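look at this fold:
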Amino acid sequence: MILPVDPMIWNRTASELLLSVSEGGDLEFWVAEAGTSWKRTGHVATGRKDIIKGRCSSAKKTVLVVQRPDGDEVSIWDSKESQFSSGLEHSQIFPTDTPVVDLDWTATPDGQSILAIGFPHHILLLYQQRMTYFEQESGWGVFGRIEIGRITRHPIADSIWISQAQMLTGAGHQMIQARPGFSLKDGTTSKDLFETVARKNGPVPHYHPQMLLQCLLWEKVNLVKQIIGRLARDLKYLTSEERAVYEMDPFPVYSFLGSDTQEESKPSVPNELSLFDNDSQPVVEDGIDGFSPAVVSKLVADLEDMPLHDLGANENEQLLVLLQATLAIDEHRRALDADGLRYLISIRLFYLINERVQIPRSNVSDRQRGFRERIRYRDMVWAFHSSSQEILLDASTAACGGKMTWNDARALGIFLWLNSIETVKTQFEVIARNQYMSGEDRDPSACCLFYFALGKVRLVLGLWRQAAWHPEQSVMLKFLANDFDVPRWRTAALKNAFALLGKRRFDMAAAFFILGGSLKDAVNVCLKQMCDFQLAVALARVVEGDNGPVLTEILKSSIIPMAIKEGNRWLGSWAFWKLNRRDLSVRILVTPLKEYTTMLHVEGFESLEAGESHYDDPSLALLFSRLKSMSLQTIKGSNMIPGQQEFDFVSQIARVFCRM
């Protein structure tokens, strides 16, 4: 299939003229050279077959339509394929009763791509949207629909973009010209298509939550405080009409280079840079550039009443959360290292966002607003490598209201990142006590698993004596009075464990396996029946420490295969670090997964199924730079990474930053 390129680039001529699509789904971009020769400028292997339609833009975005039994699959591909990116940006299947009949590309003046997908009686408009840390969304969003069926009964034959973001559509003997508009939720405001798409995917202002979060992660807390201070100062004097068109004066480029100096005073500006920067310095009010608890509280209240016009509803919520999180971490950051600070940021955001989600909002799901059941493994890894774990544990306990239960510990990954076995056991006992105290009835069965792992059978026996209301009290008192160092009673505990498995009482089954001395069976229940690998890891660490065979088996047989199958490099890096294979912990960050699994097989690991290579997290580069020279093993691992591969990895991270 040979296709022409849609000329959608403004004010310059597109270099690529043709796109060829092979039967195997390989895309090749071609440009004419002198004479009659053609030069290939790019290649993407999509793996798609039975392609019935395709369209390429001069921005080298390609949309393909594949006919499937359940409908037409529309997939969007970027030309920048590499070992770290397949090029696939979006995929969606449309039902068989709405076949795709037409595809057309256009772009905003600043190069943001827009795709029109034509169906028999309507046109769907897609735009490329910004990547974000807060929400798990597709790389492309739906802008709106043009309903041709309301105007004519004839099906769409063809359509084309014309000037001023208008679309000309042919249907039967009619020509229909439409200018897509966009109405806000109140239905009173209409916006230009190009302007709206540019806002959705164009450069972000300094106070955008995405910008603030990246600055916090990359050790630029002072810069974030300056931005917040300037925002508070500017909004103080603006009317509602002025707020609608507010744009913050940009900070100089050098403000974003380097990390914090941990000093309140700002570093002096080199004279040669000031020649190119006319930005005036903000007036210092309270704290650093007007940042103080009073200023932040007033700004939060102001933004609650009157959100910023150029941010969406979710983005305004995220901004409020980041303002509160920055204030919270500022009090602790001098006592923490960089990794600990990143973890503290993550838990503050986690609890603040989940707290705001409790306030319902129409037509928006909790997931779209950023609700999560746990922090990301990325954030757990920061805590794992931090040298300030005692402070982090105190902060985590405080975030849980002072009484950490197992659900809280799992949400924060406590037993993945704590390094001291003594601290692990102490915290496990704290959780056992809180599990018992959490219910109104004080149910001893809620804490049996935890106390049995700690070897405190007599303590559990005492708790059962107080549970006169429990129907199983007499049975448990009689059974727990036995000596479980005697093989007979260990065997009896194992028999009870299997009986409890049959009744689907998995937590008590695991507890009786521990009581019977079978740690391996207990962790298998956690892994297979309870689907809780964190509990399995915690039990193994409490019972046998960090170097026992059961923990090693969990890492090799469960966690590493899961991490590689899901493309979760953070979890994989943590698992190899726990196995004392720090060289592999570094290499998994920058090695394509298929190549990595081949290398693991050579190292003696079992053959593993490799999932998609997810390189959509810029913090991978941060962790790589953090680990690559941490020890002799990590230096060995980083030296085995080819230079070109490391360069391609950095290039991919740069592209992700551009998408954010």
Summary: The first strand starts at residue 2 and ends at 6.
